[in-house]
Design brief:
Helix content: 55-70%
Order of helices and strands: HHHHH
Strand content: under 5%
Number of helices: 5
Shape: globular
Distance between the termini: 13 Å
Largest sheet: none
Structural class: mainly alpha
Radius of gyration: 13 Å
Number of strands: 0
């Protein structure tokens, strides 16, 4: 079975949601704040494994937040699946100030 490539509009939706979650708009929590810092640091130094673990933990925490909108949930669930299947990398969706984001999509 071949994997469907991630479309640029999907990447944009993922980036927007991840940016809002990383900025702490949802959910606010000390443990998740540590994940936010870890994600940014790991992406900045290209530590894929740490970035992936922290990002998934952060996104799963956001998914468990009852204040997360249905619209955001409809973006978040496919994003978690894409991360788990290797279709999206943290560096593609996490904005780090002063760094360019990868624009590649999975084949």
């Amino acid at each position: 079975m071949s994997r469907r490539p991630v479309l640029l509009n999907e990447l944009e939706a993922y980036r927007d949601l991840v940016t809002r979650i990383l900025d702490g708009t949802a959910p606010p929590d000390d443990e998740l704040n540590m994940c936010r810092a870890t994600v940014r640091a790991a992406v900045a130094v290209a530590d894929r494994q740490t970035a992936m673990q922290a990002l998934c933990m952060l996104l799963e925490g956001a998914l468990a937040d009852p204040s997360l909108s249905i619209d955001d949930t409809q973006v978040l669930v496919p994003l978690l699946k894409a991360l788990a299947r290797g279709r999206v990398e943290p560096a593609q969706i996490v904005a780090i100030e002063g760094m360019e984001q990868e624009e590649t999509v999975s084949p």
